[in-house]
Specification:
By secondary structure, the protein is α/β, with parallel strands linked by helices. It has helices at about 50-55, 75-95, 115-125, 135-145, 185-200, 205-215, 250-255, 255-270, 275-285, 300-305, 320-330, and strands at about 5, 5-15, 20-25, 25-30, 35-40, 45, 60-65, 70, 70-75, 95, 100-105, 130-135, 155-160, 165-170, 175-180, 230-235, 240-245, 285-290, 310.
Protein backbone atom coordinates (compact mmCIF):
# COMPACT_ATOMS: atom_id res chain seq x y z
CA UNK A 1 0.00 0.00 0.00
CA UNK A 2 1.47 3.36 -1.01
CA UNK A 3 1.67 5.96 1.77
CA UNK A 4 0.51 9.50 1.16
CA UNK A 5 1.44 12.29 3.56
CA UNK A 6 2.10 15.98 3.38
CA UNK A 7 5.80 15.90 4.27
CA UNK A 8 8.55 13.29 4.17
CA UNK A 9 11.96 13.64 5.78
CA UNK A 10 15.18 12.78 3.96
CA UNK A 11 18.87 13.36 4.63
CA UNK A 12 21.14 14.05 1.66
CA UNK A 13 24.92 13.82 1.33
CA UNK A 14 25.37 15.80 -1.88
CA UNK A 15 28.88 14.72 -2.87
CA UNK A 16 31.07 15.52 -5.85
CA UNK A 17 31.46 11.80 -6.61
CA UNK A 18 28.35 10.22 -5.06
CA UNK A 19 25.00 11.33 -3.67
CA UNK A 20 23.49 9.40 -0.77
CA UNK A 21 19.88 9.75 0.40
CA UNK A 22 18.65 8.41 3.74
CA UNK A 23 14.98 7.89 4.62
CA UNK A 24 13.73 6.27 7.83
CA UNK A 25 17.34 5.51 8.91
CA UNK A 26 17.94 3.51 5.72
CA UNK A 27 20.15 4.37 2.77
CA UNK A 28 17.70 4.35 -0.13
CA UNK A 29 20.02 5.95 -2.72
CA UNK A 30 23.80 5.64 -3.07
CA UNK A 31 24.58 6.59 -6.65
CA UNK A 32 27.14 8.60 -8.68
CA UNK A 33 26.49 12.37 -8.87
CA UNK A 34 25.96 12.46 -12.62
CA UNK A 35 23.14 13.06 -15.08
CA UNK A 36 22.65 12.30 -18.77
CA UNK A 37 20.85 15.06 -20.69
CA UNK A 38 19.38 15.43 -24.16
CA UNK A 39 21.68 17.88 -25.99
CA UNK A 40 18.76 19.39 -27.93
CA UNK A 41 16.28 19.96 -25.10
CA UNK A 42 18.38 19.62 -21.90
CA UNK A 43 15.78 17.18 -20.60
CA UNK A 44 16.85 14.45 -18.19
CA UNK A 45 17.55 11.08 -19.82
CA UNK A 46 19.18 9.21 -16.93
CA UNK A 47 20.55 9.87 -13.46
CA UNK A 48 22.99 8.10 -11.16
CA UNK A 49 24.25 4.65 -12.14
CA UNK A 50 22.45 4.65 -15.52
CA UNK A 51 24.04 8.01 -16.42
CA UNK A 52 27.47 6.83 -15.27
CA UNK A 53 27.29 3.91 -17.71
CA UNK A 54 26.92 6.48 -20.50
CA UNK A 55 29.91 8.59 -19.35
CA UNK A 56 32.62 8.68 -22.00
CA UNK A 57 30.29 6.95 -24.49
CA UNK A 58 28.07 9.90 -25.45
CA UNK A 59 26.76 10.47 -28.98
CA UNK A 60 25.52 13.57 -30.83
CA UNK A 61 22.22 13.56 -28.89
CA UNK A 62 23.38 12.76 -25.34
CA UNK A 63 25.76 14.52 -22.96
CA UNK A 64 26.68 13.54 -19.43
CA UNK A 65 27.21 16.19 -16.75
CA UNK A 66 28.66 16.01 -13.24
CA UNK A 67 26.81 18.96 -11.64
CA UNK A 68 29.21 19.30 -8.71
CA UNK A 69 32.82 20.40 -8.98
CA UNK A 70 35.12 20.72 -5.97
CA UNK A 71 32.25 20.03 -3.59
CA UNK A 72 29.95 22.78 -4.86
CA UNK A 73 27.36 23.16 -7.61
CA UNK A 74 28.94 24.04 -10.95
CA UNK A 75 25.83 23.48 -13.11
CA UNK A 76 22.66 24.69 -11.38
CA UNK A 77 20.16 23.22 -13.87
CA UNK A 78 21.86 19.81 -13.92
CA UNK A 79 22.08 19.77 -10.10
CA UNK A 80 18.36 20.47 -9.76
CA UNK A 81 17.53 17.71 -12.27
CA UNK A 82 19.87 15.31 -10.46
CA UNK A 83 18.40 15.97 -7.00
CA UNK A 84 14.86 15.71 -8.37
CA UNK A 85 15.70 12.49 -10.27
CA UNK A 86 17.40 10.82 -7.29
CA UNK A 87 14.56 11.82 -4.93
CA UNK A 88 12.11 10.29 -7.41
CA UNK A 89 14.19 7.09 -7.47
CA UNK A 90 14.23 7.07 -3.66
CA UNK A 91 10.44 7.47 -3.48
CA UNK A 92 9.99 4.55 -5.90
CA UNK A 93 12.28 2.32 -3.80
CA UNK A 94 10.73 3.35 -0.45
CA UNK A 95 7.13 3.22 -1.66
CA UNK A 96 6.34 6.76 -0.53
CA UNK A 97 5.05 9.81 -2.26
CA UNK A 98 5.26 13.36 -1.00
CA UNK A 99 4.49 16.74 -2.50
CA UNK A 100 7.00 18.36 -0.10
CA UNK A 101 10.15 17.29 1.72
CA UNK A 102 11.99 18.21 4.87
CA UNK A 103 15.69 17.88 4.02
CA UNK A 104 19.02 18.01 5.78
CA UNK A 105 21.89 18.46 3.29
CA UNK A 106 25.60 18.16 3.99
CA UNK A 107 27.82 20.71 2.20
CA UNK A 108 31.50 21.83 2.35
CA UNK A 109 32.45 24.14 5.20
CA UNK A 110 34.53 26.22 2.77
CA UNK A 111 31.61 26.95 0.43
CA UNK A 112 30.88 30.63 -0.22
CA UNK A 113 27.50 32.26 0.48
CA UNK A 114 26.66 32.09 -3.25
CA UNK A 115 27.54 28.38 -3.37
CA UNK A 116 25.41 27.68 -0.29
CA UNK A 117 22.50 29.53 -1.90
CA UNK A 118 22.87 27.37 -5.04
CA UNK A 119 22.58 24.17 -2.93
CA UNK A 120 19.55 25.53 -1.07
CA UNK A 121 17.81 26.71 -4.27
CA UNK A 122 18.41 23.36 -5.98
CA UNK A 123 16.90 21.54 -3.00
CA UNK A 124 13.90 23.87 -2.83
CA UNK A 125 13.23 23.47 -6.57
CA UNK A 126 13.27 19.68 -6.00
CA UNK A 127 10.28 20.00 -3.61
CA UNK A 128 12.29 20.79 -0.48
CA UNK A 129 9.88 22.64 1.86
CA UNK A 130 12.11 22.81 4.96
CA UNK A 131 15.80 22.75 3.97
CA UNK A 132 18.46 22.56 6.68
CA UNK A 133 22.17 22.56 5.90
CA UNK A 134 25.03 20.98 7.80
CA UNK A 135 28.78 21.39 7.38
CA UNK A 136 30.30 18.13 6.11
CA UNK A 137 33.01 17.75 8.80
CA UNK A 138 30.34 18.20 11.49
CA UNK A 139 28.16 15.60 9.73
CA UNK A 140 31.15 13.23 9.47
CA UNK A 141 31.87 13.60 13.21
CA UNK A 142 28.24 12.80 14.05
CA UNK A 143 28.29 9.85 11.61
CA UNK A 144 31.45 8.44 13.22
CA UNK A 145 29.67 8.57 16.58
CA UNK A 146 31.57 11.40 18.28
CA UNK A 147 29.80 13.58 20.84
CA UNK A 148 30.05 16.89 18.98
CA UNK A 149 28.35 18.82 21.79
CA UNK A 150 30.86 17.72 24.45
CA UNK A 151 33.38 20.16 25.94
CA UNK A 152 36.36 18.49 24.26
CA UNK A 153 38.16 18.79 20.97
CA UNK A 154 37.78 16.29 18.14
CA UNK A 155 39.47 16.64 14.77
CA UNK A 156 38.02 15.33 11.51
CA UNK A 157 39.71 15.07 8.11
CA UNK A 158 37.03 14.37 5.48
CA UNK A 159 38.64 13.62 2.10
CA UNK A 160 35.85 13.66 -0.46
CA UNK A 161 35.81 13.81 -4.24
CA UNK A 162 36.17 17.58 -4.67
CA UNK A 163 37.28 18.94 -1.29
CA UNK A 164 39.20 17.94 1.81
CA UNK A 165 37.49 19.30 4.90
CA UNK A 166 39.52 19.56 8.09
CA UNK A 167 37.80 20.73 11.26
CA UNK A 168 38.27 20.84 15.02
CA UNK A 169 34.88 20.49 16.71
CA UNK A 170 33.94 21.37 20.29
CA UNK A 171 30.69 22.30 22.09
CA UNK A 172 28.58 21.80 18.96
CA UNK A 173 30.60 24.18 16.81
CA UNK A 174 33.59 24.29 14.50
CA UNK A 175 36.55 25.94 16.23
CA UNK A 176 39.17 25.56 13.51
CA UNK A 177 38.26 24.99 9.90
CA UNK A 178 40.39 24.30 6.82
CA UNK A 179 38.79 23.51 3.46
CA UNK A 180 41.02 22.85 0.46
CA UNK A 181 39.91 22.00 -3.05
CA UNK A 182 42.34 19.11 -3.27
CA UNK A 183 40.85 15.63 -2.90
CA UNK A 184 39.91 12.39 -4.67
CA UNK A 185 39.36 13.98 -8.10
CA UNK A 186 42.92 15.36 -8.00
CA UNK A 187 44.26 11.87 -7.25
CA UNK A 188 42.35 10.59 -10.28
CA UNK A 189 43.81 13.35 -12.48
CA UNK A 190 47.30 12.55 -11.16
CA UNK A 191 46.84 8.94 -12.26
CA UNK A 192 45.54 9.95 -15.71
CA UNK A 193 48.53 12.27 -16.23
CA UNK A 194 50.98 9.60 -15.03
CA UNK A 195 49.58 6.97 -17.42
CA UNK A 196 49.97 9.42 -20.33
CA UNK A 197 53.54 10.39 -19.43
CA UNK A 198 54.95 7.09 -18.20
CA UNK A 199 53.15 4.60 -20.45
CA UNK A 200 51.97 6.72 -23.38
CA UNK A 201 48.46 5.42 -22.85
CA UNK A 202 45.28 7.46 -22.52
CA UNK A 203 42.87 6.37 -19.78
CA UNK A 204 39.45 7.80 -18.95
CA UNK A 205 38.18 8.97 -15.57
CA UNK A 206 36.50 5.65 -14.78
CA UNK A 207 39.66 3.62 -15.52
CA UNK A 208 41.76 6.01 -13.41
CA UNK A 209 39.23 5.57 -10.58
CA UNK A 210 39.58 1.79 -10.82
CA UNK A 211 43.39 2.10 -10.68
CA UNK A 212 43.03 4.29 -7.55
CA UNK A 213 40.66 1.78 -5.90
CA UNK A 214 42.71 -1.30 -6.77
CA UNK A 215 46.31 -0.09 -6.26
CA UNK A 216 46.05 3.40 -4.73
CA UNK A 217 48.60 3.81 -1.93
CA UNK A 218 50.10 6.66 0.12
CA UNK A 219 53.17 4.53 0.97
CA UNK A 220 55.79 2.83 -1.20
CA UNK A 221 56.01 -0.07 1.27
CA UNK A 222 52.86 -1.85 2.45
CA UNK A 223 52.51 -4.87 4.75
CA UNK A 224 49.76 -6.42 2.61
CA UNK A 225 50.41 -5.10 -0.90
CA UNK A 226 47.70 -5.45 -3.55
CA UNK A 227 48.38 -7.28 -6.80
CA UNK A 228 49.26 -5.23 -9.87
CA UNK A 229 46.23 -3.91 -11.73
CA UNK A 230 46.08 -4.57 -15.47
CA UNK A 231 45.11 -1.53 -17.56
CA UNK A 232 43.97 -1.73 -21.18
CA UNK A 233 44.05 1.34 -23.40
CA UNK A 234 45.16 2.81 -26.72
CA UNK A 235 48.76 3.87 -27.39
CA UNK A 236 48.66 7.65 -27.92
CA UNK A 237 51.04 7.49 -30.87
CA UNK A 238 49.88 4.39 -32.76
CA UNK A 239 46.32 3.91 -31.41
CA UNK A 240 47.17 0.20 -31.03
CA UNK A 241 45.87 -1.56 -27.90
CA UNK A 242 48.18 -1.82 -24.88
CA UNK A 243 48.11 -3.94 -21.73
CA UNK A 244 49.99 -2.43 -18.79
CA UNK A 245 50.41 -3.84 -15.25
CA UNK A 246 50.31 -0.98 -12.69
CA UNK A 247 51.80 -1.45 -9.20
CA UNK A 248 50.90 0.30 -5.95
CA UNK A 249 54.47 1.70 -5.66
CA UNK A 250 54.06 3.40 -9.04
CA UNK A 251 50.77 4.98 -7.98
CA UNK A 252 52.17 6.09 -4.60
CA UNK A 253 54.85 8.09 -6.46
CA UNK A 254 52.39 9.70 -8.87
CA UNK A 255 49.93 10.86 -6.15
CA UNK A 256 52.70 12.05 -3.79
CA UNK A 257 52.18 15.78 -4.48
CA UNK A 258 48.45 15.67 -3.79
CA UNK A 259 48.88 13.65 -0.57
CA UNK A 260 51.54 16.16 0.55
CA UNK A 261 49.06 19.04 0.06
CA UNK A 262 46.56 17.27 2.34
CA UNK A 263 49.33 16.71 4.92
CA UNK A 264 50.23 20.41 4.82
CA UNK A 265 46.57 21.42 5.31
CA UNK A 266 46.24 19.13 8.37
CA UNK A 267 49.37 20.71 9.90
CA UNK A 268 48.03 24.23 9.17
CA UNK A 269 44.73 23.38 10.90
CA UNK A 270 46.63 22.04 13.94
CA UNK A 271 48.67 25.26 14.10
CA UNK A 272 45.44 27.27 14.46
CA UNK A 273 44.01 24.99 17.18
CA UNK A 274 43.79 26.40 20.75
CA UNK A 275 46.14 24.62 23.23
CA UNK A 276 43.40 22.99 25.37
CA UNK A 277 41.74 21.47 22.31
CA UNK A 278 45.14 20.45 20.88
CA UNK A 279 45.73 18.39 24.03
CA UNK A 280 42.34 16.66 23.52
CA UNK A 281 43.23 15.86 19.90
CA UNK A 282 46.59 14.34 20.89
CA UNK A 283 44.71 12.15 23.40
CA UNK A 284 41.74 11.23 21.17
CA UNK A 285 43.55 11.03 17.83
CA UNK A 286 42.35 12.37 14.48
CA UNK A 287 39.56 10.76 12.45
CA UNK A 288 39.72 10.17 8.68
CA UNK A 289 36.46 10.03 6.70
CA UNK A 290 35.40 10.19 3.04
CA UNK A 291 36.55 8.04 0.14
CA UNK A 292 40.12 9.34 0.39
CA UNK A 293 40.45 7.66 3.81
CA UNK A 294 40.49 4.32 1.95
CA UNK A 295 43.82 5.09 0.23
CA UNK A 296 46.13 2.35 1.50
CA UNK A 297 48.61 3.42 4.15
CA UNK A 298 47.29 6.99 4.45
CA UNK A 299 46.54 6.69 8.18
CA UNK A 300 50.02 5.27 8.88
CA UNK A 301 51.72 7.93 6.78
CA UNK A 302 49.91 10.78 8.55
CA UNK A 303 50.49 9.21 11.99
CA UNK A 304 54.24 8.90 11.31
CA UNK A 305 54.48 12.42 9.82
CA UNK A 306 52.44 14.34 12.41
CA UNK A 307 52.94 12.24 15.54
CA UNK A 308 49.23 11.99 16.40
CA UNK A 309 47.32 8.72 15.95
CA UNK A 310 45.01 8.75 12.90
CA UNK A 311 41.91 6.51 12.92
CA UNK A 312 39.89 5.51 9.86
CA UNK A 313 36.13 5.77 10.41
CA UNK A 314 34.30 2.44 10.43
CA UNK A 315 32.53 3.20 7.15
CA UNK A 316 34.33 6.33 5.82
CA UNK A 317 32.30 6.60 2.60
CA UNK A 318 29.04 6.81 4.55
CA UNK A 319 30.17 8.90 7.55
CA UNK A 320 28.74 12.21 6.25
CA UNK A 321 25.50 10.56 5.08
CA UNK A 322 24.98 8.85 8.44
CA UNK A 323 25.64 12.16 10.21
CA UNK A 324 23.02 13.98 8.14
CA UNK A 325 20.60 11.13 8.98
CA UNK A 326 21.21 11.59 12.72
CA UNK A 327 20.86 15.38 12.35
CA UNK A 328 17.49 14.88 10.61
CA UNK A 329 16.18 13.15 13.74
CA UNK A 330 17.64 15.83 16.01
CA UNK A 331 16.66 19.02 14.18
CA UNK A 332 15.27 20.56 17.39
CA UNK A 333 18.35 19.62 19.46
CA UNK A 334 21.16 20.57 17.04
CA UNK A 335 21.50 24.37 17.11
CA UNK A 336 24.35 24.24 14.56
CA UNK A 337 22.01 23.33 11.67
CA UNK A 338 21.73 26.17 9.16
CA UNK A 339 18.31 27.13 7.78
Amino acid sequence: MRLFSLTKEIAVDLGTANTIIIHNDKIVINEPSIVALDKRTDKLIAVGKEAQQMEGKENEYIRTVRPLREGVIADFNAAELMIRGLVKKASAKSDWFSPSLRMVIGFPSGASEVERRAVRDSAEHANGRDVYMLFEPMAAAIGIGLDVQAAEGNMIVDIGGGTTEIAVISLGGIVTNMSIRVAGDDLTEDIQGHMRRAHNVKVGVRTAELIKINVGSALTELENPPEDYIVHGPNQMTALPMEIPVSYQEISHCIEKTISKIETAVLAALEQTPPELYADIVRNGIWLAGGGALIRGLDKRLTDKIGIQFHIAEDPLLAVAKGTGVALKNIDNFSFLIR
